[in-house]
Structure formats: C-alpha cells, structure tokens
Amino acid sequence: MLVRENQKAVVVVDNAKVTYRVYASGKAVQENVDSRVKRQGNLRTVEAVKGVSMVAYEGDVIGVIGTNGSGKTSLMKAISGLTPLDGGKIFASSRPSFLGVGAAMLKELSGEKNIILGGLAMGYSRSEIKEKLDEIIEFSGLREFIDLPMRTYSAGMSERLKFSIAASREHDILIIDEALAVGDSKFRKRSAERMKELAQNAGCVFLVSHSLKTILETCNRAIWLDNGVLKADGEAYEVCKAYADEVGADLDD
Amino acid sequence: MSKLSDLAAANGLERVGKRPKLGNYLRDVFKRRAFAWTLSNYRLLASTARSRLGVAWLIVVPALQITVYGLIFGLVLGSARPDNFLPFLIVGVVLFQFLAGSFSDGARSITSNSALAKSLSFPRVLLPLSAMVSQWLKFSGLMVLALVFLPIFGEMPRWSWLMMFAVIGLASLFALGIAMISARLTVHFNDLSQLIPFITRIAFYASGVFFSVDRLTAGLPWLSFLEWANPVSVYLALARDVMITGHPAESWLWAVGAAWGVVTMVFGFFFFWSAEERYGRAG
Fold this sequence. Notes:
A: alpha/beta; Rossmann fold; B: mainly alpha; elongated
C-alpha cells in the first residue's frame, strides 16, 4: 500500500511526530507507564502523533478514523503545515488547505465582517471577497443574522459560517476535519454536496470523520489512527470494518 | 535519505511548512496587505464595540491621560517643569503612546491571534504588521487632538509641523522592529507579557516624556550618552523640535533616529522571519 508504481504521489508523510508541551498544574489521576502524557514538574509532554508514515496519491479520497484524541487532527494539521513537526518530514505537491471547524473569528464583529476577514486571510483580493460575499452568506443560510456580532451566534451557527467561508475556494490538496458534523441536517446535506464537488476538483482529499457511513460513501481508502500510531491503512471498507469490530461501532452510523 | 524522502523527491514534492524564500515571502505579504489593514481596523472596532462611546474612547483615554499627567507632573515638578510645559507634554504623550502601543500590541499579535494562525496559512509577519497599522490609526486620531490643543496652549501652526511625517516615519521603522521582536519573544516566553507594563513604565520615566532629558544630563554629564542611546528619547526630541518652540534638537539626532529605525526594523524582520515555521503552535 505504501508505494504504488505508476501513480503520482501528492503527499508523502515520512515518520511524522507531533509532541505538545503543556504547562499544567495539579496531579494526574494515576501515573500510567505507557501513557502518551509524560510529566516533568508542571510540564507535560503529550505525544499526539508518534511516527506515522504514509503516501497519498493523486485522486485519493482518504478517510481518517480513530477515537477522540487518537491524533487525527494533529496529523492533519501537520500535513497542512499549521502545526510544526517534532520529527520526520512531510512533503506535498502544493500547500494543503485545512478546512476545519474552529477557524479564527473575531467574536465582537458581525458575521459579514468575519467573512471578509477570513476571505482576505485565505488570499482573496478585496474585490474577489466582495463578489463571493453573497454566495457565502447564501450557503451558510445565516442571512438573517449576518449583521449580528458573532458572539451572539450559537456554536452550530458559527461553525456553519466558518465552513461556508473555507468551502468557497477550490483547493489542490484538501483536508476536511469533522466538517460534516456541523449544523443541522439541511446544512449537512448542502455541505456534503459541496465537499463532493471540492473533492472532484482537488488532487487529493483527506476526510476526518466519526461517521463510518460518510467515509464509506465518499472515500476509496481509509487510515486508522490509534494512540498516535497508524493502525491500519487500506481499502476503505476493510479498514472501517476492522475499526467497527474493535470499537463496537456500526458501519451504517 | 529514507525511501519515502526519495519518493517525495522523485515526484517533485516540497516539504510542507518550509519557510518560503525571502522574495516570495515579501511578495506574499504584499499580496495580502488588505488582510493586515482590515484585521487592524476590525480589531479596533471590536475593542470598543460594546461601549457606548465606541471608537471615541481611543481619543478620550489619551486626552484624560494628558490631563492627569499635566495636573500631577505640573504640580509636582513645579519650577523644574520644562518650558512650554503643556505642548511639551502633549507631544511627548502622543508619540510615547504610539511606541509603547506598538511594543505591547506587537507582543500580543501572535498569541492573541493564535486561532487564526492555527487554522489558516499566511505570512505570519502580517500579524505584527497589522498591530502596527492599528497604532498608526490610533496615532492619527491623537494627532488630530494634538493639532486642536496645541494652538489653544499657544503653539501656532507652522510649516515645520509637516516634518512630523518624517519623524513618525523613522519612529515607525523602530516601532515595527520592536513589534516583530516582541511578537517572537512572547511566543518563546509567554512570561514576557507580564513584564511588558513594567518595561513600558520604565521607558516612560527614562525617556523624558514629562521632563527634559537635558536637565537630567546637565547635572550628570556621564549620562549624556542617553541622548542618543535611548531611541525613544531621540524620537521625542525630534518630534518636539518640529512641533513646539523652545526645544530644538541637534541636527545629528536625525541621523541617529534613522539609524535606530533601520537597524531595529531589519534586525526585527529577520529575527521574526527566522522562526516563521514555529508560530502555528503559539498560544
């Protein structure tokens, strides 16, 4: 699986490691010898990704599965270059775009101003973002509330707005983190369609999701992260099946 | 070289997160200048959005400060007051606010925007740059205030006021350098943010905002190096030279101001840029 002939590799992950150093006070509930959290005074180091290697090829739509805290988001952020690596290397044909929830926003400002700011940070010019503004508001379905400050939005509403901004652009290598969990069922359907469009135009897509059904519907391949280690990498159905068997999940869920 | 690195090289892949070449970096910064401008505007709006007076606070607070300093130092200093005290104090406070603000906002620029830095990729130097733009906007508001009050206290408008653009240009080079340096230092040592108010306070007392550095050095000649070694007092001296009567500056101070500005700015940029890859983890 690792090296395929005759296909163009677009992302190469070579023994990537991500470690967080966090200052924390208080006592751990129990000292665990193989815990990924190591303590040294108040400084704890968390080995979020412990040496993952993989290759993504052109046209791959890769589902990323694993339990909470298994290192999925850390690995994806490292692939997009947003989180620096502590070991190993990651190569890509162009800068991967991370399309995740939790993008930055200024809470005191209106939704509209946040769209403009997010768009400019993504590299739109002032006139481009003015053109796209209406389309993004329409997609988010938040037209009624667009001039209210974002601190008044519910969690779901602000996630919708962030997704709408990020999804307004085409990307070569696209990393989608949990985006389908966002919003109500109507918005979820609209964003699933938009993601399929984006995936068709992109060279390669990573999709992080807890919904095995979504992974099976959209991906040709899946990787399973467990405790910061790559536990499986292969055809989507097989990996999802193995994962479902181990954690007792349902493939239709 | 491992097998995977060979594969990456064979496919012409680039290492992700690698710091771009200087030329490309600067081009990218220039391309996204609208982002720095908009971010600073919006941040200023956001900082006062919940108060009734809104952005007016950006002028009201320094006006109150000048009043308080004027009363306190005016009384305390008594006959030791510099000549032409109120205009002297107004110019001092306005320019000092600008420099101190660049320092403290610059220091916060990466950590307070960490959500932005973690989710989007753009040249990180745009963040201290945008902190700088906020300071320019605040400064222009204060300058309007100063231009109204200087004639009231007997300083009539004159042509040399236009030279203030040159002073603020040099001071901006210095301030931007300081903003970039403090931005990176705060990422490495978050504790610095606790020290910033003290550093600013010390600079306030050591730079002659409300007294004349001449008076200090007249009694203690060995301190006279402070005239050129403290960039803050250099810019204050130049600003007073062009704005008010009775406080001329030696003309070589212009060269000193320019040197401080260029050196700090160039050093600050490379200091900031060399850690570009690390900022994604800030905060």
